[in-house]
Design a protein that fits this description.
This protein is α/β, with parallel strands linked by helices. It has a single domain, classed as NAD(P)-binding Rossmann-like Domain (Rossmann fold, 3-Layer(aba) Sandwich). It has seven helices and nine strands, in the order βαββαβαβαββαβαβα. Strands 1, 2, 3, 4, 5, 6, 7, 8 and 9 form a nine-stranded mixed sheet that branches. The longest helix has 42 residues. It is globular. The model has no long low-confidence stretch (mean pLDDT 89).
Length: 205
């Protein structure tokens, strides 16, 4: 199958390699073309619209809202052409409101949309063992599922668009709190250890 891929950073590259390994052809676009100059076996598009013109299923995995804004709405963006018969699978972690906004923009152009933020990093992306959190119209999900199964060990379908983004943020929040607290604890321990050591050295003199 010919698939489109928009955004070929670290996660995007791992997903690209995984999809090629499972027998797909890919047409890809990345904002910084020099970063994918060494990527073999893919067709490189000049903009996201060219990707959507060539492939019926397009996976978007971008860093943040600024990147999705450019890929969807700038000149040569996804919504600059008709998306009739196209399915956009958006993997970017974003807010529920932003996911709904992207879905509406795709539907206005005649396309289908699912949000599919994932749990996992580069290694599970390359191995096809991510956790997929998916939301959107059921028929769009059914169409996306065979592709997502190539990337995931488990898929949770969560209903209307926005639900997957909310779940991903809910999962991320305690992780961020944990790592933040751990960093504070380590810094406190190092500072205390240094203070005690210098105190002992002072007593020794």
């Amino acid at each position: 199958m010919l698939l489109g891929l928009i955004g070929v950073g670290k996660m995007g590259r791992a997903i690209c390699e995984r999809l090629m390994e499972t027998g797909n052809e890919l047409i890809v676009w990345n904002r910084s073309l020099e970063k994918i100059s060494d990527l073999k076996g893919v067709t490189v598009a000049s903009n996201p619209a060219e990707v959507a013109s060539s492939a019926d299923i397009i996976i978007s995995i971008l860093a943040n809202d600024n990147a999705t804004q450019a890929a969807y709405f700038d000149e040569g963006g996804l919504t600059s052409i008709s998306l009739h018969g196209k399915l956009i699978i958006e993997i970017c972690t974003t807010s529920p409101e932003r996911a709904v906004e992207l879905e509406n923009s795709v539907k206005e152009k005649g396309g289908q949309f699912v949000e599919a933020p994932v749990g996992g990093t580069v290694k599970p992306a390359r191995e096809g063992t991510l956790l997929g959190l998916v939301a959107g119209d059921r028929d769009a999900f059914d169409r996306a599922e065979p592709i997502l199964k190539q990337l995931t060990r488990r898929i949770e379908y969560l209903g209307d668009t926005g639900a997957a983004a909310a779940m991903k943020l809910a999962i991320n929040l305690p992780l961020m709190v944990y790592w933040g607290a751990l960093g504070e604890a380590v810094a406190m321990a190092i500072k205390k250890r240094y203070s005690c050591r210098t105190g002992y050295e002072h007593i020794g003199r």
